[in-house]
Amino acid sequence: MKPLYMGTHLFIRRLLMMAALAILPLTARAFDLNDLQTQLRATPVVRGQFVQQKFLRSLPQPLTSRGDFTLASGQGLLWLLRTPIKQDLRINAKGISRRDETGAWQSLPQQTGSGRENRLFLSVLAGDTTGLQENFDLALTGEANAWQLLLTPKSVLLRQIFDNIQINGGKLVDRIELRETQGDRSVLQMTDAVAADALSPEEQRAFSD
User: What are phi and psi of 160, to 5 degrees?
Assistant: First the structure.
C-alpha cells in the first residue's frame, strides 16, 4: 500500500504543479488596456518637448519639426511648434485651433490630414483607449514601465489611410509612429517630459480663451 500511496501522492503533487503553472500566466498578466488608460490619465499635467518627423517616399530626408507641448487632463493639448516655423496649436474636444498674430485662437478645418493626425495624437497622449477602440483594434504588450500598443484600423476609410499605428511608452507616451498605406510614415518622439499638478497662468489662459 505504501508504494501505491507514494505514487498517488507524487501524481497529485505533479498535477498541482501543472495547474499552478497553467494559472501563472493569467495571474502574471497584470497590465491591460484599463491599466494603461488609468496610468496615462493619472498625471493632471505633462510638459515636454517633441520631435516630429515625416518620412515621405518622394524625399531622401525626413521633414523634421520640433517644439514644446503641454497635455492637461480633461482640457486638451497645447502643441507649440518652434522649428522650422513658429506655430501654436490647441487641440481639445472642440477641435483644433491655431493662435494668430494677435494671440487669438482661430478654429481650423477638421478634415485635414494633419488635423486627423493631431486628434489621434491627443487621444493617444491622453490615454483615451476607449475612444481609440471605436476606430481601431488595439493590441497591448509589455508591462507598465515598458509597453507597446498597436492600433490596426477597423473601418475601410481608415484602412485606406493607415496600415497601423505603433505607440511605445512607460509612465508616459514616449513614441508614436503612424504608417500610411501609401508608404509614408510619421514618427513623433516626446522627450524630457515632466509631470505637474497644475497649469501655469499662461497655460490656463491658453486653454480658457
Answer: -75, -15
